[in-house]
Design brief:
There is one protein chain. The protein has helices at residues 5-14, 24-30, 37-45, 71-80, and strands at 22-23, 57-58. The chain is mostly helical. It has one domain: Arc Repressor Mutant, subunit A. A two-stranded parallel ribbon has the order 1-2. The chain is globular. The termini are far apart.
């Protein structure tokens, strides 16, 4: 049984180690749809599972991007993990 795009995104994001990030574009590419970076953002925006560290996915220009708990919380988490 093959995984849905959403499941592939979650599987990829779960593996991002603390202190590291991937871009929405890179996650889309790893999930076999390099043009679906906006879909990746929408999928992660609906995620409330703490086991999926969606705060570790950032924009290609290096800015943090959105976060369903607020951009300040995302920046705080990334700082705490040593990324920012």
């Amino acid at each position: 049984m093959s995984l849905s795009f959403r499941q592939r995104v979650y599987k990829i994001v779960k593996k991002i180690p603390r202190g590291k990030v991937l871009t929405y574009k890179k996650v889309a590419k790893l999930a076999d749809n390099h043009k679906a970076f906006r879909a990746v953002g929408n999928i992660l925006n609906k995620n409330y599972d703490p086991k999926i560290p969606c705060h570790r996915v950032i924009r290609s220009d290096g800015k943090t991007g959105g976060y369903n708990k607020g951009v300040n919380k995302k920046a705080e988490l990334l700082k705490k993990e040593g990324y920012l």
